[in-house]
Amino acid sequence: xxxxxxxxxxxxxxxxxxxxxxxxxxxxxxxxxxxxxxxxxxxxxxxxxxxxxxxxxxxxxxxxxxxxxxxxxxxxxxxxxxxxxxxxxxxxxxxxxxxxxxxxxxxxxxxxxxxxxxxxxxxxxxxxxxxxxxxxxxxxxxxxxxxxxxxxxxxxxxxxx
Length: 161
Prior knowledge:
Number of domains: 1
Order of helices and strands: HHHEEEEE
Structural class: alpha+beta
Strand order of the largest sheet: 1-4-5
Distance between the termini: 76 Å
Number of helices: 3
Number of strands: 5
Strand content: 15-25%
């Protein structure tokens, strides 16, 4: 009888370890997908030229177009609605919140040193660009690990060529 109890206990331990590993792998996949989405959104935003300023020879980002492009890219890459709420079929469960969206334009002197102490982020921009920080919550499938909340950071520069 004790062998049967030992065998069941070992199976529970093995299964728990396996579930923990699966959960950690799913968390890493979520982090990587979210990081790519934030990077793509920042890059898309940074490419929104202000055509009037460009006509005057100034490379500058149109802030309204940049914000719209970033939102669209986040929505499409993370399968979100207009409010940042995951759609049916999305790998996320909680809304994605854009914590920081800043456009650094030609009015600044470059290289521009950006620092955000609240989210512990620093970057250097060599030309006009966009800084974006989004809050993403890992959709736990099992309750073996604590909830994970990431503040995913991204930055991109205007590419004029």
